[in-house]
Design goal:
Helix content: 40-55%
Number of helices: 24
Number of strands: 16
Shape: elongated
Bound molecules: ligand NHX, zinc ion
CATH topology of the largest domain: Methane Monooxygenase Hydroxylase, Chain G, domain 1
Structural class: alpha/beta
Oligomer: single chain
Number of domains: 4
Radius of gyration: 42 Å
Strand order of the largest sheet: 8-10-11-12-9-13
Length: about 675
């Protein structure tokens, strides 16, 4: 039994390898009719050729124009006319000359003799009206007294060429315009690799990575993400040996949802699965389902699943699934998002529709699992969720190793140090740091990428581009210096605040100055830590007020952070006295009454009051500290104005060593020594 089941599958695979993978239509005016490639430009060429041919046919054999006078005086008189054909609808008369009289006209035909058909008509002339012509002909014959009278033949002649021109040509132009517009429309909707023409709007735009095509990604390229890797290895195993699982009566999962912040390597992970499993891999983005035509999304889902089932066992990867998987609206007339919901419904039905042993596994990635429709995540659909988190210190080290591999590094380069320096960085950020470091080193014409280049790259990524040429008045510069010194002083003297790395009044990105911290990587934060951090944040504004007696708009960013922090403490973490242990946080994200707050007006008032209390006390604390350490603050500001960047070492000289001594603190010292050395070297050069 089992053999019979597996054999046809093997056959399928065999033919798959031999047959060319489905042609991926990439614009260029290709029509896919009956599976055959057909270029539109051939139609254009044929039409043009046809027109030219008709033109030639009609223009080669044309009679010579003559006049009634000539006809009367010469042709009728000499009895050379074989017949006269009156073409009624064009008002022309064609003259056929008798064959044995043709010689008489050779000089009249002259050079055009070859153009004229030997059998006639040889000449034509134009007449005013047929009645007049008949009368004139009659009179002429009577007058001349010809022996055999000629009576004209009447004909109606359609001008095929003219007809074609007036009818077909506009139609051809219309069709051309129509095709052009449709091509533009379907191109506009599709991303890279999309089938760009009107006949395939309903086709899925999935990109197929076959066994033969494309360089493979495997798990060795995925650094960090150890737990996720283990989980997802299982998926590979399902595809490779499904029997092992089904024999015990287990069912193979249909869908796996990769959840995690941007840049953590969800897409990379999915690609690695495909590479490892060695099965076809369909990749598409959630937004690829969306098109301006109604019903296209659902049709694309259907097509995707059809293709996938044909290629089973295989993996379907849908990136950014939140584009279609967002929770459906409760109120149908209100949402106005029918198309997206239809697409989602189709996806739900399709996922229900195939049996779990068919060998199709759907991988989907999103960074917003909370907004996904719950139906999507129920058992039987995406029943597995793999959380891909920001890398911790050890994982960052692994990631740095991967991305630093192609770089030419200086000797004794410590990747360990970089990993410690970059808390909160994602894999993509780290890749960016490595690349930026190489670019900075190249700009300085260095032979190797040095530690300092990496530090500069990190600063650049956190703070943005340095803007040394920004015009800042002396007064503003003083304000900035005292603002930053305020941050530095308060954070230095508060035990639980983050350790300070350096203070800079060089404008960077959108800010005019900044105090740089090295946040400790911790999972939990205590009330003390939160409060100390808030005081440090308010230290800037407090310093401005204390020193100058007036405040500036510059504290905007600080105040925003502090206010959010305070509201979170009160409304989410239950950390205030009045609203102890109550949280209004909603992790499900599926709040049916999203517009109303989950608490009463009275509670709202209490929350506001508590927030005000917390912020006021934090501000007063900062101001007190600054008042007590006014000398230090002044020294610091002066030093900052002089040097523009100062390090924690300088603060230690002014205020003495810090109370708290964490792991991060030691690291700060290391980093600082490096930067000092660099500064020294640079000033020596100058
Ligand atoms: C600005 N930015 O946008 C300037 C460039 C206090 C020395 N006007 O807290 O850079 O002042 O510790 C409209 C109005 C941002 C938009 C006022 C956008 C104010 C950063 C705040 C340093 N370091 N603040 C800091 C800072 C600023 C800001 C605004 C705005 C400053 C401070 C921004
Ligand atoms: Zn500030």
């Amino acid at each position: 039994m089992e053999n019979k089941n597996t054999n046809p599958e093997k056959d399928k695979k065999g033919t798959q390898k031999g047959s060319p993978s489905k042609p991926s239509n990439k614009g260029g005016g290709n029509f896919n009719i009956g599976g055959k490639k057909f270029n539109v430009y051939w139609i254009y060429i044929l039409i043009i050729l046809g027109i030219l041919a008709l033109n030639l046919f009609y223009s080669t054999k044309t009679p010579i124009e003559t006049t009634w006078q000539d006809v009367r005086v010469q042709m009728i008189k000499q009895g050379d006319i074989d017949k006269l054909v009156v073409v009624r609808n064009s008002g022309k008369v064609e003259v056929y000359i008798k064959e044995n009289s043709l010689n008489n006209y050779s000089n009249k035909l002259g050079q055009d003799a070859e153009k004229v058909d030997r059998h006639g008509p040889h000449f034509f002339f134009t007449i005013g009206s047929i009645d007049t012509f008949e009368r004139q002909l009659e009179e002429a014959q009577e007058e001349i007294g010809v022996s055999e009278r000629i009576s004209p033949v009447y004909e109606d002649r359609t001008n095929y060429f003219g007809e074609i021109f007036t009818w077909i040509f506009p139609i051809v132009i219309l069709i051309g315009i129509w095709l052009f517009i449709f091509k533009r429309i379907s191109k506009g909707g599709g991303g890279a690799g999309g089938a760009g023409n009107i006949f395939s709007v309903g086709k899925s735009k999935a990109q197929l990575f076959d066994k033969e095509s494309d360089p493979k990604t495997d798990f060795t390229e995925v650094a960090g993400l150890e737990e996720a890797k283990v989980e997802i290895m299982e998926i590979v195993d399902f595809l490779k040996s499904p029997k092992k699982y089904t024999d015990l009566g287990g069912k193979i999962p249909k869908g796996v949802l990769l959840v995690g912040p941007p840049g953590t390597g969800k897409t990379l992970l999915a690609k690695a699965v495909a590479g490892e499993a060695n099965v076809p891999f369909f990749s598409m983005s959630g937004s690829d389902f969306v098109e301006m035509f109604v019903g296209v999304g659902a049709s694309r889902v259907r097509d995707l699943f059809k293709q996938a089932k044909e290629k089973a066992p295989c993996i379907v990867f849908i990136d950014e699934i939140d584009a279609i998987g967002r929770a459906r609206g409760k109120n149908a007339n209100f949402s106005g998002n029918d198309e997206r919901e239809n697409t989602l419904n189709q996806l739900l039905t399709e996922m229900d529709g195939f049996a779990s042993n068919q060998g199709v596994i759907i991988l989907a990635a999103t960074n917003r699992a909370d907004i996904l429709d719950r139906a999507l995540m129920r058992a039987g659909r995406f029943d597995r969720q793999i959380h891909v988190e920001l890398p911790d210190y050890r994982e960052r080290k692994d990631i740095f190793k991967v991305h630093a591999k192609p770089l030419k590094l200086e000797k004794d380069f410590s990747i360990d140090f970089l990993a410690k320096q970059t808390p909160g960085f994602s894999g993509a950020d780290i890749a960016n740091v490595c690349n930026e470091a190489a670019l900075i080193a190249a700009r300085k014409n260095k032979e190797f990428v040095e530690k300092q280049d990496f530090l500069d790259a990190i600063d650049r990524i956190i703070g943005g581009l340095e803007k040394k040429n920004k015009i800042i008045s002396l007064e503003e510069k003083r304000t900035i210096a005292f603002h930053e010194s305020g941050h530095a002083t308060v954070s230095w003297l508060l035990e639980h605040a983050n350790p300070l790395l350096k203070v800079s009044i060089i404008p960077r990105g959108k800010s005019l100055g900044a105090a740089w911290y090295l946040p400790e990587e911790r999972q939990l934060t205590t009330t003390e830590q939160l409060l100390d951090e808030m005081s440090s944040l308010l230290g800037g504004r407090a310093s401005e007020e204390l020193v100058f007696g007036k405040i500036s708009t510059g504290a905007l960013n600080d105040l925003e952070k502090v206010s959010k922090q305070a509201y979170a403490m009160v409304a989410y973490f239950g950390m205030s006295n009045e609203i102890k242990n109550i949280s209004f946080y909603d992790s499900s994200g599926q709040n049916e009454y999203a517009f109303s707050k989950p608490y009463s007006e009275k509670t709202a008032e209490i929350i506001d009051n508590e927030v005000k209390l917390i912020i006021d006390s934090a501000y007063n604390r900062a101001k007190d500290i600054l008042k007590k350490n006014r000398d230090g603050l002044n020294q610091l500001a002066e030093l900052l104005l002089e040097r523009e960047v100062i390090f924690s070492e300088d603060l230690e000289k002014i205020f003495g060593p810090r109370k708290s001594h964490t792991r991060a603190e030691e690291l700060v010292k290391n980093i600082e020594e490096e930067e000092k050395k660099q500064e020294g070297e640079e000033s020596e050069k100058e």
